[in-house]
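Narrative of accomplishments. A recurring question from our advisory board has been how the design workflow behaves on a single, concrete structure rather than in aggregate. To address it, we present the structure tokens for one chain from the evaluation set, followed by the sequence designed for it. No filtering or post-editing was applied between the two.
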């Protein structure tokens, strides 16, 4: 009887070992599948969604404010014309109907299929220049030379939002002809960038759990998160070399404005060498020579992160691999001040 019991016990122990081995194998397979499904390093090409490549042949001044802003016009806007002291790129990001804009002179226009724009030096001709009137649809872009005025008008029920990239001498621009302006990512570069300056704007698309590493060998970069709402977003930034500034627009304008408003994102006292999650209406400035990592900490694919880079005259095409960096010959140093000093 005892021998029979011992044989039964041995068989049960052997079966338990087999079952445990099978469970371990299943667990390993599941873990491998999860890794393949949500890789730690981006397997996709973040540069695949290039939005614009803008070539600028003149940058005024010796200190250049590089800024990315959100310009908002609500219904029945009839404000004055606006101009900037340097070249500007405008992209329609929110509009139910074509946006009506009047320009004081010639401009360069592109849609989501063209991408290439060039802004050259404007020459003063005799007489009054002929105004240009355009109706721009969603995702269409227009590049303006310095001091070219533009005037946006809206009708009943129309709300228009534009992304603006500006290269302004000195500091942040005045915006009397814009109903609501928010400069969400900005910095100051000294000396002024060499020309022709190639400004690239790309939409970084990361799956849930993926991250993307890149570096800026010479030129600076701006990061901007459109986000949803005003809370913490799943996208986080870490600097592994160099310096940068995280910034956020803290104020929210009332829907019914009595006067136009303009906000400049304020530096937040956080160390970017530790992972910092973006919030809605926020951005970052990365100085030349910076290495950084952007990570999608959520499980939802797609980040809504815009990367704007500024490269000198010998820029090469954007890399097709996630870990390589665009090369440039732009030699510049960021002037320490509230918008571009590492926090």
């Amino acid at each position: 009887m005892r021998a029979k019991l011992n044989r039964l016990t041995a068989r049960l122990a052997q079966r338990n070992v087999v079952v445990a081995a099978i469970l371990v194998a299943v667990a390993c397979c599941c873990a491998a599948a999860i890794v393949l499904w949500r890789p730690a390093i981006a397997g996709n090409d973040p540069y695949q969604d290039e939005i614009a490549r803008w070539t600028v042949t003149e940058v005024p001044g010796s200190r250049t404010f590089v800024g990315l802003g959100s310009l908002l016009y609500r219904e029945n806007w009839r404000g004055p014309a606006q101009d900037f002291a340097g070249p500007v790129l405008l992209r329609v990001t929110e509009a139910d109907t074509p946006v009506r804009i009047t320009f004081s002179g010639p401009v360069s226009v592109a849609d989501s299929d063209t991408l290439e724009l060039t802004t050259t030096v404007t020459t003063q001709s005799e007489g009054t220049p002929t105004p240009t009137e355009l109706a721009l649809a969603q995702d269409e872009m227009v590049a303006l030379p310095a001091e070219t005025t533009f005037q946006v008008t809206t009708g009943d029920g129309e709300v228009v939002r534009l992304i603006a990239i500006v290269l302004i001498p000195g500091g942040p621009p005045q915006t009397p002809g814009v109903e609501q302006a928010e400069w969400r990512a900005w910095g100051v570069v000294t000396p002024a960038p060499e020309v022709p300056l190639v400004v690239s704007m790309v939409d970084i698309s990361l799956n849930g759990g993926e991250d993307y590493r890149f570096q800026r060998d010479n030129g600076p970069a701006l990061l901007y998160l459109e986000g949803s709402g005003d809370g913490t977003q799943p996208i986080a930034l870490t600097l592994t070399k160099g310096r940068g500034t995280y910034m956020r627009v803290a104020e929210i304008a009332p829907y019914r404005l009595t006067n136009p408003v303009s906000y400049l994102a304020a530096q937040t006292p956080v160390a970017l060498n530790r992972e910092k999650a973006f919030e809605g209406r926020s951005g970052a400035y990365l100085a030349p020579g910076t290495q950084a990592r952007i990570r999608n900490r959520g499980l939802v694919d797609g980040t809504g992160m815009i990367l704007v880079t500024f490269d000198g005259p010998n820029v090469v095409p954007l890399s097709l691999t996630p870990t390589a960096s665009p090369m440039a010959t732009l030699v510049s140093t960021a002037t320490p001040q509230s918008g571009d000093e590492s926090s």
